[in-house]
Automatic annotation (TrEMBL):
Species this chain originates from: Streptomyces ficellus
Enzyme nomenclature, EC number: 1.-.-.-
Highest classification ranks of the organism: Bacteria, Bacillati, Actinomycetota, Actinomycetes, Kitasatosporales
InterPro entries: MPAB/Lcp_cat_dom (IPR018713)
Broad EC category: oxidoreductase
GO molecular function: oxidoreductase activity
Signal sequence extent: none
Protein name (Swiss-Prot/TrEMBL): Oxygenase MpaB family protein
Keywords: Oxidoreductase
Domain (ER-bound oxygenase mpaB/mpaB'/Rubber oxygenase catalytic): residue spans on this chain: 19-260
Name of one Pfam family that matches: MPAB_Lcp_cat
């Protein structure tokens, strides 16, 4: 794939499924499940375990990952630049996984799986937090996800090109590769040491530091609940994560509240900053074109 800016793949178009979802605060609720499914692959889990700063700087890593994801969708000409930055960052990440196999972060199968996980998680979580997708929306989401993959430098030959091809590929990876890696167990643990947030105004940081011993346990339980609950059931089963009927009922109740509250929020509360700015710019340029 060419890295010339003149031939850079464009991000998904405004008005699509990802344009609405990627910057919506509901997308934040889906990300822990996607991350857990990524690191359930032994190669990805080993790379994150050895090379990530998610233990020492979880808030900074989360902020950078979230900004990166939004750039893929809302970044315009900078989307492909962010894709090149990510590939350069992962170029030196390699080692041996828990099965004794050599891995490299940019090996096509590994790199593609990290990206692929977003589609089944978003597809599953959407029905709880937004509404069940129509068949047309499913196909649109998958086509846009493939386009994001191109932005990230994933070749078409390394990703299934249709939904019909995706699900057998996905089930095969679940059957052959996925397991409860050490990083998965750490991400869903409720007793892992997590430092308080170190972003934001100083008074807020000091307050959070003071209250953190009280706040962390319920936040950790909520993170576990969402991580497992918004993961597709077949992925849960492949990893060996338990999910009860009572938890399912709680998740459905939670989803009803989210579906009722989020759509009526003002845009400044519903969308993250990069998404808000991109949506505002799109409206202004559209209005200017119509005025001509």
């Amino acid at each position: 794939m060419s890295t010339s800016p003149a031939h850079d793949p464009a991000p998904p178009p405004p008005g699509g499924v990802l344009w609405s979802l990627a910057g919506d605060i509901r997308g934040l609720l889906m990300l822990p499940a996607a991350l857990a499914l990524q690191v359930a692959h032994p190669a990805v889990g080993a790379g994150v375990d050895a090379h990530s700063v998610f233990r020492t700087d979880p808030w900074g890593r989360g902020e950078r990952s979230l900004r990166s994801l939004q750039l893929w969708v809302y970044g315009g000409e900078t989307a492909a630049e962010e894709g090149r930055r990510l590939r350069a960052f992962h170029r030196t990440i390699q080692g041996t996984d828990t099965r004794g196999r050599r891995y490299h972060a940019l090996a096509p199968a590994t790199y593609a799986w990290v990206h692929a996980t977003g589609f089944p998680v978003f597809h599953h979580a959407y029905r709880y937090l937004v509404r069940p997708m129509t068949e047309a929306q499913e196909r649109e989401l998958y086509a846009e996800w493939l386009q994001v993959g191109r932005v990230l430098g994933i070749h078409d030959r390394d990703m299934p090109q249709t939904i019909e091809e995706f699900w057998p590929y996905y089930r095969k990876v679940l059957a052959d590769e996925i397991e409860a890696t050490a990083v998965v167990r750490e991400l869903i643990a409720t007793d892992s040491p997590v430092p308080p947030p170190d972003r934001g105004p100083l008074p807020l940081r000091l307050l959070l530091r003071l209250l953190w011993p009280v706040l962390l346990p319920p936040l950790a339980r909520f993170r576990r609940f969402l991580t497992i609950g918004l993961m597709p059931p077949d992925a849960r089963e492949a990893i060996g994560l338990e999910w009860t009927d009572e938890q399912e009922r709680r998740l459905r109740r939670f989803g009803r509240v989210v579906r009722a509250v989020v759509p009526v929020l003002p845009e400044r509360l519903r969308y993250l900053p990069l998404a808000r700015e991109a949506r505002r710019h799109h409206r202004l340029t559209g209005a200017a074109r119509r005025a001509r």
